[in-house]
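Give me the fold.
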Amino acid sequence: MFNNSTQKKCWIFHSEEILENMRNEANRSFQSKLLASVTISPNDSLPLLEPHEEKMLRKYYEKRLLDFCSAFKPSMPKSVMGTASMYFKRFYLNNSLMEYHPRTIMLTSVYLACKVDEFNVSSSQFVANLWESPAAQEKALEQILEYELLLIQQLNFHLIIHNPFRPFEGFLIDLKARYSAFENPEVLRKTADEFLSRETMTDAGLLFTPSQIALAAIHFSASRVGINMDSYLMEYLMLKDNKECLSKLIEALRSVKILVKKYDPPKLDEVNLMKQKLEHFHSLDLGFCTNLKKRKGYKEDELIAKRAKVEEEEWSDDDLIDTM
């Protein structure tokens, strides 16, 4: 299972610094490739995105992906959402938002995740979730299908994603069956679900195993209701006599919780400025690549999901903090 997976071998990294360096290199590589291929006059300048600007937009579209999945009809399993989110994150470890528009990659990631996780929706059902005219939906589907193979290639054909949702359910079952000190483990579910939803917007899935993330969610939720889980970790997970493994697990749980707690959603006014800059760049006819204009995505972000624009504007840092 996970121990033999490509996820463990190829997509779990040792530090946030490694991830940041990979993304910075993707940005620099694209800028260098672009500037070496186009000719601009001394008085002109290209609206290139810096790494911190790409980071802001990437975080914004990661949340848009979750919003799209949450609003999807028919109701989408959490595993599909988690798989799509990981596809999106993995893709932009080695690619720049300036080269491939995040709206297109976002929708392609969800579409591919539906297939891989066997969530059977037709292509027409999928694009019906876009707030667009039939002609625009058809165009969106063309773009998704055009980019599907590219996405698969950039993922190195590693399509199986191990999400924390299944081990989370496993831990709950184990608590109910064996941990008599806890009368009703179901009281942990709501807070743990909120923790896992917020975790999906962080890089935790690129740094920790699904079981570590799931256990961190349970540990966090238990602490909120005043329950100490140390005896469960030591006795029921059989780590009492393995101090080294216990120490590593506790450190991993602490790190996951810190990562989730420090997540800082991008501010909408700053995002809007960066979106304008990105749209300006993708509107340019640079002659750099014949597919550049096709990478443009969609003109209006608010057409992505059937969700009122006011809902997005009401989402703030305080909303996320309150859920924690």
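Residues 290-324 have pLDDT under 50 and may be disordered.
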